[in-house]
Amino acid sequence: PPWPPALEPPAQLLHDATLCQDLRRSLTALATGLLPESKGIPVADVFTVRPPVLGEPNTLVCMVGNIFPPAVEINWQLDGIPVTQGVTHTHYTPTDDLAFVRFSYLPVTPATGDIYTCIVTREGDNASVIAYWVPQNPVTSEVLETALCGAAMALGILLALLGIAMILVSRRSAHGKARTPGSPPVGR
């Protein structure tokens, strides 16, 4: 279709775009080293995709937030030894707070005593953010259910005894107020 007459012609648009790019390059060259660079301190958190069970395959997730500018390197270690096999990373995803978030995944089969480490390094910095994940010996759900049931039963019995004791005390005090020693019974 023909170019709409109300818009600038393509040659003028190209000229304006070139002018903007040249102006940006000039201002960047003038401001480099004079203006402080805005940087966010990355925050890392490590968790599993499914509830962890020792000896069963799972996936560890290292979620790195508050990334700005979007340029970090994420590495994994198991007991201090670098792990690269099976590691995958997502793209940088913008967040509402004008920063970025990035995920890294590591397939694992957790065992007792393992220490997994997610190391986040921002390009050009001498500091790293480190997050650890150590598999715990989970209490089996049957043992936990039995313990909770026993505790609830004990609490119920205790409260029932307390209720009976309170009823007996209130009846005694009601009978004691109705008759005082040495007075005839009420209603005769």
TrEMBL record:
Gene3D superfamilies linked to this entry: Immunoglobulins
Domain Ig-like per the UniProt entry, residue ranges: 36-130
Pfam families per record: C1-set (PF07654)
Keywords assigned by UniProt, alphabetized: Membrane, Transmembrane, Transmembrane helix
Ranges annotated as spanning the membrane: 150-169
Keyword Ribosomal protein among record annotations: no
Protein's name according to its UniProt entry: DMA protein
Species the sequence originates in: Pygoscelis papua (Gentoo penguin)
Taxon lineage: Eukaryota, Metazoa, Chordata, Craniata, Vertebrata
